Amino acid sequence: MISSNKIADQDFENVALDFSELPDFKSVKTQGLHRRYLTVLRCRLLFFFILYLTGAGLVFFFLGLPIQKFLLIFSGPLLVFLILFVEFEIGFHKRQIGVRSHDLYYTRGFFYHKETLVPFKHIQHVEVSQNVILKWFGLYEVIFYTAGASAGDLNIRGLDESTSRKLKSIVMQKNESDESNEQL
């Protein structure tokens, strides 16, 4: 009798792996973002802080609030500003990109540390772009799209033109070589 379930006919083995034998994904050589991007982050933070101060000052002036209430209103955003400033200053050096033979590695963050591994075979589209601010500083953003994501799965801002173009080229070459190997 022939079974219609081919999986049931096969012997299935699920071997436990020892964590000490797994390769260390952090062993990849990484490269940081361009130093000018730190200036972009500082300017953006300063712009929003000044915008908030202006709004709070206008409310204080027109409503005639006592200085104690103004300081109370001002202290919360000041704390957020300081936290973000520390995140940008210390966390900037933790923004690292690494390329391995089968995937792309990106790490970022000081208070909220995040590491992302994107396999090349899952990347369907790569976009290199600039917004007005990045263009002003001569920087680029590389966006990697994978299956099922409408927004980019991985956005890396703050790269110079040559690095962004090389990164796109590497990913496209890896995808083309993987496709040609699968067709054989």
Largest sheet: 4 strands, antiparallel
- In total, how many domains does the architecture comprise? 2
Fold-level CATH name of the largest domain: PH-domain like
The ordered string of helix (H) and strand (E) elements is HEHHEEEEHEEH
List how many beta strands DSSP finds. Answer: 7
Low-confidence segments, given as residue ranges, are none
Global Rg: 24 Å
Distance between termini?
Answer: 34 Å
Helical stretch tally: 5
Into which percentage range does the β-strand content fall? 15-25%
Task: Describe the global form.
Answer: elongated
Task: Explain what this protein looks like in three dimensions.
This protein has 184 residues and is α+β, with helices and mostly antiparallel strands. The chain folds into two domains: 37-91; 96-179, Roll (PH-domain like), CATH 2.30.29. 47% of the residues lie in helices and 21% in strands. It has helices spanning 6-9, 36-63, 67-91, 132-137, 161-183, and strands spanning 30-32, 96-99, 103-108, 114-119, 123-129, 140-146, 154-159. The strands form two sheets. A four-stranded antiparallel beta sheet has the order 1-2-3-4, with no helix packed on it. A three-stranded antiparallel beta sheet has the order 5-6-7. α2 (36-63) packs antiparallel against α3. The longest helix is centred in the N-terminal third of the chain and has 28 residues, at 36-63. The protein is elongated. The two termini are 34 Å apart.
Structure, briefly:
This protein has helices at residues 6-9, 36-63, 67-91, 132-137, 161-183, and strands at 30-32, 96-99, 103-108, 114-119, 123-129, 140-146, 154-159.
